[in-house]
Amino acid sequence: MGVLKGIEELDWGQWEHAYGPATDVPGLLQELLEEESAEDAQYELYGNIIHQGTVYPATKHAIPWLIKLLVPESTADRVWLLQYLLDLAWGDSYMRLHAHLDDDGSPEYASRMAQEVSHVDGVRAAVVDGFEVYLALFDFENVSEVGAAIDLIVGVPELLERLQKDAWAKFEALLAHSDARVRTKATMGLGWFQSWEGMSDYIDRASTDESEAVRWAAAWASGYHRLHTQEVVDRLVHAMLEPQALDDELEAVLERSVGQASIAPLLSAPEEFHPHILEGMTVQLQRAKAIEATEAARLMLLMVFGQERAPESFEELSSRQVEVLRLVSECDEAWVFDGNMSQLLSSWGLPSRRDALKTYVNQKDD
Hints:
Elements: E1 16-17, E2 20-21, H1 25-31, H2 35-45, E3 50-51, E4 54-55, H3 59-68, H4 78-89, H5 94-97, H6 99-102, H7 107-128, H8 131-136, H9 143-155, H10 157-166, H11 168-175, H12 180-189, H13 200-207, H14 212-224, H15 230-241, H16 244-250, H17 258-261, H18 274-287, H19 290-305, H20 319-330, H21 338-347, H22 354-361
Antiparallel strand pairs: 1-2, 3-4
């Protein structure tokens, strides 16, 4: 059994997951070590110890074993494991996620929610306990694994705090790594730092790097810190308009296309940049497939409507808002998962069916 020695000795039936006693978890974790069974096990683990964003009492007990699977002698997919641990760290309580629908204000409800939240806190703590293991992956040769380790550490505030406090030299070395893909991921990581103090020198260096990918990452991180100069906006929009070269270079370290990744850092840009940004976002929407198209549509709607519901009267919409709605209504790929698209539109108080949206945006043409 190797790295999972002892896992069967625990009474997994005493802990619950989404479907009851977690007796299947040891077997699934062992299957992660076998190429022929790993994919099925990964699918099952995204349905039981985390299910649609909810974590359970069994989840925190599985995490130490998941961390053991990251060691060099393990044959498990370390990139998948690191991404999975990040998702677990951001899992939540079912009752807290649905409190707006179910909370009756009773002491009993509050007590049960507090118990669920304690499990959530335990899951986050268990993930954070693996810090030294994740940090060791910075020295691995596989750039995909290094990139996934960066994502996990900078993506969990408690891990990021430890990185800044105890291991900054390790991260600083990645910013100067010989492989441009690693420098790119590390530079993107700067975007998640809460404080920009002391970061500007690293960004300035990255923005003049010999690699276009690293220069793009510098703009990406700057955007997340609301430092939207013309150069930053131009670089990110260019990546939306012409992403192919960067997509090819960064395939091993980016889950999404560069064009898709370039949108979010621009959402807080000053309004003077919006026409140029929407030009790039329009191309990205028209190029994207299925889920990415729906996400591109969501981000475009967020840019023109913000967090507020749409005006009740069509006449109150700006021409830019109408144009975005028209683009969304005409994008076939954004409606592949029409339930998701309808839910998005409803959240802004907009017509949720595609035919109704088309009728709505064409009012001025009648």
